[in-house]
């Protein structure tokens, strides 16, 4: 096999109380990429479609940087061409850079006969993700690779846990058409937090993980709270609290900032509630005059895949 086409999904990182460690994978939104073996040594980005201004130089492109990291480590014969059909808008908060970073290494691994496992692929993808967010984090990469909910237990050594996804869980996401750079959304966060807030956050986080294991929707609802990051980043998103309030009134289990924003996610039990939440989000956001997209999706338990 010399060429492969893959789907690299969008993801939601943080999931309210799990800043930098928890994430889940979306079903209906993602990039498509073609990875091709070449005789010429090196990594070459040959096509970028989707209308976004992204660099073709491999060392400046997220997909290229992760591919180069893997290429230099494995030293395969020949090289690889990468085509990116970008569907996830950069700066949207649903793991655009992670999808690119994951797609190239996943595709190369397939073409090389799968010498690496998903944790090893995550480590190479982190190099690409770091180019976009100016620091290494894997909470979008891990769900894009593994699917479902993932918990990044540690970066050094890299350890990723797969957390079960309750059946009948749906996500509704509103993506206001403004751009927030992850690096800037990280720069506004405090370097230290009060112990009382840390205690509240890890109680919610532990409860959320337990609730996902036991499909306890009531506990999921009581755990989806972020007392550390939301107070800062919500200021970057017009009408954030109004959207959140209307979402909860429509029956969502909870809502929060998706990754570093501006997208806002909410989780619901059942498709009907997720669709009602979409209507409520629409109504709340119409008032801003800012264009937006809304997506309703199942949680994708498979992650990146060959098309
Ligand atoms: N955990 C990262 C952050 C995710 O919130 O900065 C970025 O998508």
Topology:
Blueprint: E1 3-13, E2 22-38, E3 42-49, H1 62-74, E4 79-85, H2 96-111, H3 118-133, H4 141-146, E5 149-155, E6 158-163, E7 169-176, H5 182-187, H6 195-214, H7 217-223, H8 230-233, H9 240-249, E8 254-257, E9 264-269, H10 271-286, E10 292-298, E11 305-306
Helix pairs in contact: 1-2, 1-3, 2-3, 6-7, 9-10
The protein binds L-homoserine.
The site of L-homoserine has 13 residues, from α5.
How much helicity do the residues have? 25-40%
CATH architecture call of the largest domain: 2-Layer Sandwich
Major β-sheet annotation: 7 strands, mixed
Approximate strand percentage: 25-35%
Q: Can you tell me the CATH topology of the largest domain?
A: Ribosomal Protein S5, domain 2
Classify the secondary structure makeup into a structural class. Answer: alpha+beta
CATH class of the largest domain: Alpha Beta
Low-confidence stretches: none
> What is the average per-residue confidence, as pLDDT, rounded to a whole number?
96
In total, the number of domains comes to 2
What ligands can be seen in this structure?
L-homoserine
Shape: globular
Rg calc:
19 Å
Give a verbal description of the structure.
- There is one protein chain.
- With 307 residues, this protein is an alpha+beta fold.
- The chain has 2 domains: 3-164, Ribosomal Protein S5, domain 2; 169-298, GHMP kinase, C-terminal domain (Alpha-Beta Plaits).
- It is built from 10 helices and 11 strands.
- Strands 1, 2, 3, 4, 5, 6 and 11 form a 7-stranded mixed β-sheet that branches. The protein has a 4-stranded antiparallel β-sheet with strand order 8-9-7-10, sandwiched between helices.
- Strand 1 (3-13) and strand 2 form a beta hairpin.
- Helix 2 (96-111) runs antiparallel to helix 3 (118-133) and helix 9 runs antiparallel to helix 10 (271-286).
- The radius of gyration is 19 Å and the shape is globular.
- The model has no long low-confidence stretch (mean pLDDT 96).
- The protein binds L-homoserine (HSE).
């Amino acid at each position: 096999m010399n060429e492969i086409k893959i789907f690299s999904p969008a993801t939601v990182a943080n999931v309210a109380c799990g800043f930098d460690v928890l994430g889940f994978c979306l079903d209906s939104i993602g990039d498509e990429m073609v990875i091709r073996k070449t005789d010429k040594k090196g990594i070459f980005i040959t096509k970028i479609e989707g209308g976004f201004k992204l660099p073709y130089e491999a060392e400046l492109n997220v997909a290229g940087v992760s591919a180069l990291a893997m290429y230099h480590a494995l030293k395969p014969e020949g090289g690889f061409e990468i085509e990116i059909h970008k569907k996830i808008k950069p700066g949207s908060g649903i793991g655009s850079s992670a999808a690119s970073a994951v797609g190239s290494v996943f595709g190369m691994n397939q073409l090389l006969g799968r010498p690496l496992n998903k944790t090893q692929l995550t480590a190479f993808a982190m190099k690409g993700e770091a180019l976009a967010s100016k620091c290494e984090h894997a909470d979008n990469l891990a769900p894009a690779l593994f699917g479902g909910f993932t918990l990044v237990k540690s970066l050094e050594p890299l350890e990723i846990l797969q957390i079960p996804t309750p059946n009948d869980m749906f996500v509704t996401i509103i993506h206001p058409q403004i751009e927030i750079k992850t690096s800037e959304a990280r720069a506004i966060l405090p370097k230290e937090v009060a112990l009382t807030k840390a205690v509240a956050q890890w109680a919610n986080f532990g409860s959320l993980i337990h609730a996902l294991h036991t499909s306890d929707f009531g506990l999921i609802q009581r755990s989806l709270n972020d007392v550390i990051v939301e107070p800062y980043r919500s200021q970057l998103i017009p009408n954030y609290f109004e959207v959140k309030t209307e979402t909860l009134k429509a029956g969502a289990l909870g809502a929060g900032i998706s990754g570093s924003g501006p997208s806002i996610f909410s989780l619901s039990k059942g498709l009907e509630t997720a669709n009602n939440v979409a209507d409520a989000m629409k109504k709340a956001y119409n008032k801003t005059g800012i264009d937006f997209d809304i997506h309703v999706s199942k949680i994708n338990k498979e992650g990146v895949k060959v098309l």
